[in-house]
Hints:
The complex is a heterodimer of chains A (about 475) and B (about 425).
Chain A: H1 13-17, E1 22-26, H2 27-36, E2 42-44, H3 53-62, E3 68-71, H4 81-95, E4 102-105, H5 110-115, H6 118-132, E5 137-140, H7 143-148, H8 152-162, E6 167-170, H9 182-194, E7 205-209, H10 216-224, E8 229-233, H11 239-243, E9 250-253, H12 256-270, H13 282-297, H14 300-325, E10 329-334, H15 336-348, E11 352-358, H16 372-379, E12 385-389, H17 393-403, E13 407-410, H18 416-421, E14 426-428, H19 437-453, H20 456-464, H21 471-474, E15 482-485
Parallel strand pairs in A: 3-4, 3-5, 5-6, 7-8, 7-9, 10-11, 10-13, 11-12, 13-14
Antiparallel strand pairs in A: 1-12, 2-15
Helix pairs in contact in A: 3-9, 6-8, 9-12, 13-14, 13-15, 13-19, 14-19, 15-16
Chain B: H1 17-21, E1 26-31, H2 36-40, H3 62-67, H4 70-83, E2 88-93, H5 95-100, H6 104-109, E3 118-122, H7 130-145, E4 156-160, H8 170-183, E5 187-189, H9 198-203, E6 209-213, H10 219-228, E7 233-236, H11 242-257, H12 261-288, E8 295-300, H13 302-314, E9 319-320, E10 323-325, H14 331-340, E11 352-354, H15 358-367, E12 375-378, H16 382-388, E13 392-395, H17 412-427
Amino acid sequence: MAINLSSSNLATRENRLGSITGYVGDLHDLASQSRCGSLKGCGRCFSQSSTCLSGCALSQLGGIRDVAVIHHGPSGCSATASSQYVVTNQVAAKRGVVNKSVYIGTDMDENDTIFGSTEALLNIILEVNRRYQPKVIFVSSSCATGIIGEDIDSVVEEAKEQISVPVIAVHCEGFKSRIWATGFDISDHAVLSGIVKPPKEKRNTINFKNFFESARDEIKEMFKHFDLDPIFLYANATIEELEHLSESVATTCICGTLGNYLGNGLEEAYGVPYIRTINPLGIAGFETWLKEIGRVAGKLPQVLAYIEEQRSIYIPQIEEVKKELKGLKAVLGMGPGYTFEVSRVLNELGMEVVWALAWHYDKKYENGEVPPAMSYLLDNDINFEASVADQQNFEVMNILNKYQPDLYLSRHPGSTVWAIKQGIPAVYVADEYMIFGYKHTLEFAHTVLDTVRNRSFEQNLAKRVKLPYTDWWYQQEVGSFLEEAIS
Amino acid sequence: MAKILDKQRYKCAMSAMQTVQAIDRAIPILHSGPGCAQKLSSSSGSSGYFSPNIYPCTSINEKDVVFGGVKKLESTIRHSLDVIDADLYVVLTGCIPEIVGDNTEEVVEGFKDAKKPVIYASTAGFKGNNYKGHEEVIDSIVDQLLEPSDIRVKNLVNIWADVPYQNEFWHGNFRELERLIEKLGLVPNIIFGYNKGLSNVKKIPAAQFNLLISPWVGLNNMKKMEQKLKIPYLHYPTLPIGAFETSKFLRTVGRYAGVPEEKVEAIIEEQEAYYYYYIERYADLFLETRVMSKQFTVVSDAHYALGITKFLVNDLGLYPAKQFVVDDTPKGNQEAVSSYFKDLNYGIEAEVSFETDGYKIHNEIKAHDYHGYPLILGGYWEKEVAKQTNAHFLNVSWPVNERLIMNSYYVGYDGGLKLIEDIYSVAKTRFN
């Protein structure tokens, strides 16, 4: 589906990629149904809270250096302002830069839902500009403004006449998609349509979509071998860097879910190649990914030499720790950009995935293909039971109770504690680089090993707490509340 | 009308899900979009018996916006009763159902014979902030769950104070208030925190009186209970921190509850002796820290701004610069709240500004001459202005970041000592 940069709005993942949030089965079935187009997602007649797409969209944009995010809605919508501020400051301090971005709410009240508040919003935009002179102003809608039909686009147009920096409308009605990753696409769309400029010259940069650039230094060091300079997006990125994204050699990402809209958009609009391999987690992922970058950048010999050198350092160590991981059974619950990648790594490390949950599933990516992580598993004849659930914790607990794995791995705040309350050791794979490349794959393997060989904390807690779910629920099938296909 | 929220200090009414969460085995059921819980819940102290990921949620989508979400709400409540082992289910309505006009009351009415109580509260984000939302939840409990009691249990006192989670010391503060009230020979009844829950909620109507320790939040609840449950209330506006205010608090409550004066005075004498044993030992430090000047500013909700101001003036002998109340105090309460700040030792009156715009607050702090290093107690936002003004900074009010509070507290005699520890742990990071 073509990306339309002339509109401030974009289609949801459900509509663009046929993405689903309800499914129970196994990997082969999920993939074959995706390929033949028969996959239908299910709804639920009972569900638990998940995540709002506005959080994903605006935390991405708010991480860019020296911008303003104005979140037009009641005060709850902008409640993340303070956590955004602390993360922004901490990741900037780690890198030794200053990020003056601000996140502003508008405290919409009941009168505003009746009479509208476009005038107040315009004044707030002008005031924020006066106070902070941001390099770009993003103006976001919310559920409440969406339903009453507040015309954010017109307010933004009016503001543009009075402000010299870009003012960009960002449409974040929380009800429009159950898939919070749609928020990543929304942020990419805002950057592509409002900031990125057509290329003037080619540079040796590579656009690297990630979250908080924790492995920045080592990746920069690595790319020096290939005469490439990574631009990490969006935390700490400057507007000037974003303006020049169209001049890069390629775009890549640490998580396919996070990066696919920007990658496809830059390729479609400006011919910047998007690296569509499996992601650089684990050995096979890292090597496949790096070789493709080498191929695209015309640096394959240098990449192959680097791989050989690094393998000699790390592979023997990884082989050593693998012996102790062999046969461990794992359940994992993550976004699809990680679930199917981490499943592959666990398999590589000799562990057995007994069930994988993906918080959503994209039937086909923009290029019409099944996501590469999925293809890899199928091509290598790896299968396991799988389900799709937007962080439905009761389903996770039901699965953990039935399978009693040695380990649960997840990536979202508030998810690991429930596994340990059932006595199951958990590893929080929060940092996006936790399994990156040889070095972090080795570290990850050791973390898993250290976790399973001291189970004191989870055993102590599990012995003393009562679980919040009824016995009745533990006796049900995991998909009991799935109902008719919705698309 | 919409207004700029620059350095935001509160969340919306829907955040009252945290008030429900603070009641053991009570669970919110959210009739809202999918992400409200994740956004509005605290990341600190949330993985209790229930956590935000357990809250059932109708996760309203575009179709529900057009056709209404009552069917989904009904099925969500029905299944919640089967899946989740709770004592009380509180349906909270968000922005979407309240704008499109879902009849939540009617759906909840359908569960009046359910095996566990199901009630609802109107907490649309646009209806106000989480202080108002907190009051809404308490009102709903009174309206829908409680009936007037024929019996009055002598000395039973319902205690209302901090807004759970919004005031990060809520857990410890309630426990210490409980201990103080017990010292008076009264029987405290608190619904929030460890080992409380629905059984304490049910005791509310039998209490002899309600004790509200808060400048304005909760006053509406007290009036409602007075009217419906015929429970009188004692309004003590100041969170008692340190000896001066805590002794005054014990005298006031003792007098109201009919505790013999000599008993109260004996308790106070013992507690003050204990408190001043420590103050005496560390008084040289307070006097001889080169970097501690006399003037301070608190940026907080009225509850903490008032409690801390009184403590620093009346116990430690500091002098108030301007104080900033950032909880969007209703206009009708502002005059009373201001007056509490004028009742300080030696006729000192603290100037108070009701201001929700952090930019303006920071400009005022920067413009004020503190005659030395300022002492600023506030939200995490004040870390920045403290750096710009060379101030000592302690993060006491929401948002709280870069410090962990589990069960510590600032209330009472020990709470005062803890606040001093925290302030001087900051002051001691520099020599001059």
